[in-house]
Amino acid sequence: MQTFADLNREIFNQSNRSDYLKKYKKGLSEKLVIQISKSKNEPEWMLKHRLKSLEAFYEIKLPDWGPKIDLDFEEITYYANATDQKGKFDSWEDIPEDIKNTFEKLGIPAAEKKMLAGVGSQYESETVYHNLKKEWEELGVVFEDMDVALQKHEDLVKQYFMTCVPIRDHKLSALHGAVWSGGTFLYVPDNVSIKQPLQAYFRMNAPGLGQFEHTIIILEKNSHAHYIEGCSAPKYGKEALHAGCVEIFVEEDAHLRYSSVENWSKDTYNLNTKRALVGKNATMEWVGGNMGSGVTMLYPCSILKDEGARCDHLGIAFANAGQVQDTGAKVIHTAPHTSSKIITKNLSKDGGKSIYRGLVHVLPQAHDCTSNINCDALILDPDSTSDTFPDIKCENTTSEITHEATVGKVNEENIFYLMSRGIEEEEAKSMIINGFIEPIIKALPLEYAIEMNRLIELEMENSIG
């Protein structure tokens, strides 16, 4: 059985047959958007939403800041179903063998048995498996594939869908609104605390594909949950696009931890949008690791909308050869006595470029707020770079914001000290790097901390120094 500790790069780069791609045309059009909606038997309001989003996509320009998005949108396949079945399978055994084997190698069924309250698995544009343990279902928890949720809980989906991230937020949110498919819907009612994590895993297999899953998470008053997202794609030498959307609503006294381990291939543009609305005395925690993709632009955002709301943003970004990791966090304090903490750890090697880009904005009415920002970067060779672009706006003099940023290299004196104690040089360097990222790793459940550490080890192998 595959375990996280046994991870190797070939697991992520392995691809299955993709002859089903012949059924789907490249490029974006109104006809395609209508076909996606019709194939899912969506209500009329969703089709109108998709068409309105498509119109916005054509009108809005790409951002004129950050990494260059040199992507031909007409070369992307925006929707593909790898199976003949519409909708999810009832068990892992029913899933086609090659797809099932992929998820088994990634350790998803084993993790479900061992530590998860529920799991969802998406392959290309469609969810192939989704399950919630009965004990949580009986307490009123809803954990569904988004396409299923739209059919079963239409009013609830309509109430929240793209209200936290509006269509015109930027060009990619408009594109997402037009062609979204799959994703997760999680609803936790008042006073329910889910003791085990829930997980969704998103896998792209075919070359030149786009994946646009939509996730909505709603935690009602005094509820608690931990949601984990994993992502990967094989390397083809052909550009792919990931432009998912995550909308989170954390109500009074609720607590959500959202953990993400993303390992897209270097062919992939990872242009994801994640945002949370945080209520009175509620807590939102973001824990993220970005290992893959050629270009990542990702800035999870917390809007602290009611008094006493708080958020923690913890993130690792690793930029290897040919990669630009432009990541960070955004926090908007709109209410009094709100607090935020941002800790990021960026690593660069073999000419990779890591960038912290963040925003903390305290509005005039948000008195007595605090925000602490700590951005650290470790550069592992002379060819790599790291930049920090903090944007801090404080419009209330009773609030306090602190910002610290450090950039450094692996300390030779520390390596010498460890080697003097009998530790090999490569192991000494790994120990220093593990200490650097430890504040983020310790926030993950053990199995996922092991996975994150192993991914970083794979990136480091034979190339530190």
List keywords for this structure.
about 475 residues; alpha/beta; 14-stranded mixed β-sheet; ten-stranded mixed β-sheet; 12 helices; 24 strands; disordered N terminus
List the helices and strands and how they pair.
Elements: H1 9-13, H2 30-39, H3 44-59, H4 97-105, H5 108-115, E1 118-123, E2 126-132, H6 134-137, E3 142-145, H7 146-152, H8 154-160, H9 171-179, E4 183-188, E5 198-203, E6 210-211, E7 214-219, E8 224-232, E9 240-242, E10 245-250, E11 255-263, E12 268-270, E13 273-278, E14 283-290, E15 295-298, E16 301-304, E17 310-319, E18 324-327, E19 330-333, E20 339-348, E21 353-362, E22 370-379, E23 385-394, E24 400-409, H10 412-420, H11 425-441, H12 446-460
Parallel strand pairs: 1-5, 4-7, 5-8, 6-9, 7-10, 8-11, 9-12, 10-13, 11-14, 12-15, 13-16, 14-17, 15-18, 16-19, 17-20, 18-21, 19-21, 20-22, 21-23, 22-24
Antiparallel strand pairs: 1-2, 3-4
Helix pairs in contact: 2-3, 3-9, 7-8, 10-11
Describe the fold and architecture:
It contains 12 helices and 24 strands. The protein is an alpha/beta fold. Strand 1 and strand 2 form a beta hairpin. The protein has one domain. The longest helix is centred in the C-terminal third of the chain and has 17 residues. The strands form 2 sheets. Strands 3, 4, 6, 7, 9, 10, 12, 13, 15, 16, 18, 19, 21 and 23 form a 14-stranded mixed β-sheet that branches. It has a 10-stranded mixed β-sheet with strand order 2-1-5-8-11-14-17-20-22-24. It is globular, with a radius of gyration of 21 Å. It is 25% helix and 34% strand. The N terminus is likely disordered.
